């Protein structure tokens, strides 16, 4: 039915099977769209956030998907700036994943902020003293960069490349992509950092408050490093998952190994930096704020185990597995990447949810928060949106150029 | 955000913030406009088809971009970076100066005849220079067998200017359209067809015509053998073996209807 739109040299399932795969995701997207409409129409009381619990599931997810989406900027940086040519095999997929992550985060933020008719105020009357302003501007610009980087991938489709003007524009735009890769790196660097800095400057929340360098608390640098470390793991994991779901080889082993190596070493560096930062916080920052660090871990369910899991089980262990996977491939590689991604999600959870849950004043209580169905449905919608966009992109665009070479038998 | 907007103040923080933001926005917009302007200029200068070929060429698997001198074992490893236009290649010019190709001989392999009086393009077309200086162009024997009975053929009108590696004619078969690359630069002076001696007669744009990019003499046989191997690899489950002197059927698609022929044709004609 749609074979004329699919590249000749690759195989895809029948349209019926594709539609069957999409159907449940469209259902999830529909329910989520309804929940988002309720939030915009009736306001944020549809969620379980309140004046005390201002960050909930959405901000946690925003931080997580933006960190995972860092694979796009870091892969672009490695390919176009560091000249790691092997990564050409995954750059298309990285751009699409980055676009999905950032556009989903923007959509959730728009609902979270509310007042869509006044959304432009963020840009026209920004608070230049707020890290959130830096985040807003950087994410907006970077989403535009991702959109521009997405264009050549779309223009390479079979039908569009038949039009000479499109083919020429794609060629010329592609030649200038390194400029966008550099801008993307700069923007990503700052907004990942600002997202971390956002928590580090919370003097009223000593669990998150950190000291640092000049304007920036240590969390600014830790967020950048952790996102750069886990981004390649997320690219690796998604590529492997698509391979398993479709039953096709998409990239050569050396690409996997390079991603593993980069991710492993960066994650090891991050774990080292995080350990040093935690020690400084335990021994200096927290006591100076009038708290002994162990007090923060007396509140169940966030015992010291959470910190151990974050740093050791989902930090050090995946770093070592990834480094082993870089040499041997196999399960060490996949397990390492999966644990690394889980680690960054836990880190963002701790920074958002645990920070707000812990009491800071003598009369404060440990604050519980359970997301409403609208919040969960909105999250489901973002997930479904990602799966749908990626599925369409995989089917009709060339996300993995090596696929043609690796599936030479076309009959 | 800007001067005279509520909330603005002339502080270093505001000025720095706006300067950085506007610089980033200007670089993004400028780069995008530069790409659009260059594309417009290329289209106006008639470079669209050449650029499209180079774009497609870059998307070909490395194995399909092998240099002609690797086919003849003159080089061990080399990937072409000129879009199979050896006229632009300094390495090829130096090599052929010192190592002229061996004399051409007619040969036949797997039932495919490759006469010595023709030169061949990697996109499966041949060129024959006539006494008057005009050029005859047609599909090579492998291409004919590969397509078998074609659905329809669209040849360029008399007077059309052809460019080497830009589309010369199109073939429509099994509901899909395939472009066949022109082996030469020139102007179409006569149309032929499948039942005639050639598909096109062309007046070259230069005298003598620049044909150094075409395979000739002893280069043709290893190229054809490699292409047969490539074809077999693409369709192997459905195709009779070519080993040990087998002859390629006249109409391969009719022989093996289950093969995904559009995919095979696309790859063999270097159209990803």
How would you describe this protein?
The complex is a heterodimer of chains A (411) and B (272). Chain A is mainly α. Helix content of chain A is 71%, strand content 1%. Chain A has 14 helices and two strands. Chain A is globular. The mean pLDDT of chain A is 90. Chain B has 272 residues and is of the alpha+beta class. Helices cover 34% and strands 18% of the residues of chain B. The two termini of chain B are 48 Å apart. The model of chain B has no long low-confidence stretch (mean pLDDT 88). At the A-B interface, helix 6, helix 7, helix 8 and helix 14 of A face helix 1, helix 2, helix 6 and helix 8 of B.
User: By helix and strand content of chain B, what is the structural category?
Assistant: alpha+beta
* Secondary-structure element series of chain A: HHHHHHHHEEHHHHHH
CATH class of chain A: Mainly Alpha
User: Alpha-carbon distance between the termini of chain A?
Assistant: 18 Å
Instruction: Report the CATH superfamily of chain A.
Output: Formate dehydrogenase/DMSO reductase domain
Give the tally of structural domains of chain A.
1
* Largest sheet: spatial strand order of chain B: 3-4-5-11-10-7
Number of strands of chain A: 2
Mean pLDDT of chain A: 90
Give the N-terminus to C-terminus distance of chain B in angstroms: 48 Å
Beta content of chain A comes to: under 5%
Radius of gyration of chain A over all CA atoms, rounded = 22 Å
Can you write the helix and strand succession of chain B as a string? HHHHEEEEEHEEEEEEHHH
Quick structural gist:
The complex is a heterodimer of chains A (411) and B (272). Chain A is mainly alpha-helical. Chain A is built from 14 helices and 2 strands.
Fill in the keyword field for this structure.
heterodimer; A: 411 residues; mainly alpha; Formate dehydrogenase/DMSO reductase fold; two-stranded antiparallel sheet; 2 strands; globular; B: 272 residues; alpha+beta; three-stranded antiparallel β-sheet
């Amino acid at each position: 039915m749609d074979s004329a739109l699919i590249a000749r040299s690759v195989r895809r399932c029948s349209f019926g099977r594709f539609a069957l795969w999409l159907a449940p995701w469209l259902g999830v997207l529909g329910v989520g769209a309804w929940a988002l409409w309720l939030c915009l129409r009736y306001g944020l009381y549809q969620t379980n956030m309140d004046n005390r619990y201002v960050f909930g599931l959405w901000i946690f997810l925003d931080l997580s998907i933006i960190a995972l989406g860092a694979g796009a900027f870091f892969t672009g940086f490695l390919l176009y700036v560091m000249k790691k040519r092997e990564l050409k095999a995954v750059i298309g997929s990285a751009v699409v994943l980055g676009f999905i992550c950032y556009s989903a985060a923007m959509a959730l933020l728009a609902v979270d902020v509310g007042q869509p008719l006044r959304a432009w105020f963020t840009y026209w009357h920004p608070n230049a003293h707020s890290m959130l302003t830096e985040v807003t501007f950087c994410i907006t610009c970077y989403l535009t960069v991702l959109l521009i980087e997405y264009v050549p991938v779309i223009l390479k489709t079979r039908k569009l490349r038949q039009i000479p003007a499109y083919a020429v524009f794609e060629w010329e735009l592609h030649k200038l992509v390194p400029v966008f890769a550099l801008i993307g790196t700069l923007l990503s660097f700052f907004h990942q950092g600002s997202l971390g800095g956002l928590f580090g400057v919370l003097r009223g929340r000593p669990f998150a408050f950190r000291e640092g360098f000049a304007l920036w608390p240590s969390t600014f640098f830790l967020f950048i490093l952790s996102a750069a470390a886990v981004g390649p793991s997320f690219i690796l994991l998604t590529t492997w998952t698509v391979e398993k779901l479709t039953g096709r080889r998409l990239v050569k082993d050396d690409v996997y190994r390079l991603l593993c190596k980069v991710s492993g070493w960066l994650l090891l560096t991050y774990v080292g930096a995080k350990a040093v930062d935690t020690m400084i916080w335990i021994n200096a920052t927290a006591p100076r704020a009038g708290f002994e660090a162990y007090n923060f871990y007396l509140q169940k369910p966030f015992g010291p185990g959470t910190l151990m899991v974050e740093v050791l089980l989902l930090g050090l262990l995946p770093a070592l597995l990834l480094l082993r996977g870089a040499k041997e491939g196999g399960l060490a590689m996949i397990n390492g990447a999966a644990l690394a991604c889980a680690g960054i999600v836990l880190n963002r959870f701790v920074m958002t949810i645990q920070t707000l849950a812990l009491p800071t004043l003598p009369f404060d209580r440990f604050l519980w928060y359970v997301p409403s169905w609208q919040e969960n449905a909105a999250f489901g919608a973002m997930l479904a949106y990602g799966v749908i966009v990626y599925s369409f992109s995989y089917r009709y665009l060339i996300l993995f150029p090596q696929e043609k070479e690796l599936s030479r038998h076309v009959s | 955000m800007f001067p005279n907007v509520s909330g603005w103040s002339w502080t270093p923080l505001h000025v720095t913030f706006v300067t950085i933001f506007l610089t980033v926005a200007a670089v993004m917009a400028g780069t995008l406009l530069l790409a659009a302007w260059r594309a417009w200029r290329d289209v106006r200068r008639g470079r669209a088809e050449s650029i499209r070929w180079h774009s497609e060429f870059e998307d070909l698997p490395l194995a399909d971009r092998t240099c002609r001198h690797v086919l003849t074992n003159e080089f061990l490893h080399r990937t072409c970076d000129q879009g199979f236009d050896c006229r632009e290649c300094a390495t090829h010019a130096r090599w052929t100066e010192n190592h002229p190709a061996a004399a051409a001989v007619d040969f036949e392999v797997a039932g495919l005849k490759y006469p010595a009086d023709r030169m061949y393009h990697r996109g499966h077309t041949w060129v024959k220079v006539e006494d008057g200086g005009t050029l005859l162009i047609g599909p090579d024997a492998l291409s004919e067998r590969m397509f078998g009975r074609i659905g329809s053929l669209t040849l360029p009108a008399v007077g059309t200017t052809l460019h080497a590696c830009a589309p010369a004619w199109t073939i429509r078969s099994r509901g899909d359209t395939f472009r066949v690359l022109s082996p030469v630069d020139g102007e179409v002076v006569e149309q032929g067809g499948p039942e005639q001696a050639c598909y096109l007669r062309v007046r070259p744009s230069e005298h003598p015509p620049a044909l150094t990019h075409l395979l000739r003499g002893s280069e043709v046989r290893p190229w054809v053998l490699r292409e047969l191997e490539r074809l077999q690899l693409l369709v192997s489950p459905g195709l009779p073996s070519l080993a040990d002197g087998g002859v390629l059927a006249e109409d391969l698609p009719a022989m093996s209807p289950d093969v995904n022929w559009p995919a095979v044709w696309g790859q063999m004609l270097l159209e990803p």
